[in-house]
Design brief:
The chain is 64% helix and 1% strand. The protein has nine helices and two strands, in the order αββαααααααα. A hairpin with a 5-residue loop joins strand 1 and strand 2. The protein is globular. The chain starts with a helix and ends in a 7-residue tail after the last helix. The relative contact order is 0.17.
């Protein structure tokens, strides 16, 4: 049991470091450390005045590669050096509290049909389509209207989803938490770490929630300043998707909370931290 908890805490600490390091005096905006303990931007990054050529179909693989090194190495080192422990401790403490209450909350959703209509609308398949439709529609609209900003927004969204989902798969591999609906007759809700037979069936964190908050974060940062309603709609939809994962008994509340945090932190600080969003 203790080994399982250590796995979770260590990886969550790394991800929190990736996010919180972005607000430090020395920004952690790329995967290339320089000799003076600051961080230079990748070769295809913008000059800070806009997106420039920081994103394109050709640049995306390189960006994602740099992002992974940034998440798992550069930013955690930066967090340790700057001592940003309070936000990390708060996040870990809340995650631990939610994990402790999962065994009491999850059975309630497993044994009720009150959310049947809601679950039909936001099923796993439907939410996947909704999440994918946003960047797809944005990109096609940009092509039709010859709006380069919209096209780049869609590509940033794709990069954010890719980065976040890679983190999800790594964390699922490390934790292999059994999903609430995986046990009989009404699921297993306590001490289910390392019990999932396969990585793809792991429940911690929620991949749908990660993707939803990745999309919401990019769209909000790109359009929210000029259109104040965008963050409300984007994060509201992402929250509804996350909640549906609980009502469907596909995930515990802690799975959704960590997924939302990962999606936001990586998208906001790693992906969009490379350039000025406006």
């Amino acid at each position: 049991m203790y080994l399982r908890v250590v796995h979770v805490i260590v990886f969550l600490l790394v991800l929190v470091g990736a996010g919180r390091a972005q607000v430090a005096t020395e920004p952690c905006q790329s995967a290339v450390p320089t000799g003076n303990n600051t961080f230079s931007q990748p070769a295809n990054a913008s000059n800070g005045t806009g997106d420039g050529d920081a994103i394109s179909w050709r640049a995306m693989p390189s960006n994602i590669w740099h992002d992974q090194k940034n998440v798992y190495w550069d930013c955690p080192r930066h967090m340790f050096r700057t001592g940003q422990w309070i936000p990390a401790a708060a996040f870990l403490g809340l995650t631990a509290a939610l994990i402790g209450t999962d065994q009491y909350v999850s059975p309630h959703f497993s044994g009720t049909t009150n959310f049947h209509g809601f679950d039909n609308v936001l099923s796993g398949t439907n939410t996947t389509i909704i999440i994918a439709a946003v960047p797809t529609a944005t990109y096609l609209t940009g092509l039709i209207t010859k709006n380069a900003y919209a096209q780049r927004t869609a590509l940033w969204t794709g990069e954010a989803i890719a980065d976040s989902e890679i983190a999800v798969e790594v964390l699922k591999l490390a934790t292999r938490r059994l999903r609430p609906d995986a046990g009989a007759p009404y699921g297993n809700f306590a001490n289910t770490w390392l019990d999932s037979p396969t990585v793809s069936d792991g429940g911690f964190p929620s991949g749908h929630t990660v993707a939803a908050f990745s999309v919401a974060t990019v769209m909000s940062r790109r359009y929210g300043r000029n259109h104040r309603w965008v963050p409300f709609v984007a994060y509201g939809a992402a929250t509804a998707i996350g909640f549906s994962r609980v009502t469907l008994s596909a995930h515990n509340v802690s799975d959704v909370f960590v997924g939302a945090t990962i999606g936001y932190a990586i998208s906001r600080f790693i992906v969009l931290g490379r350039y000025s969003p406006n």
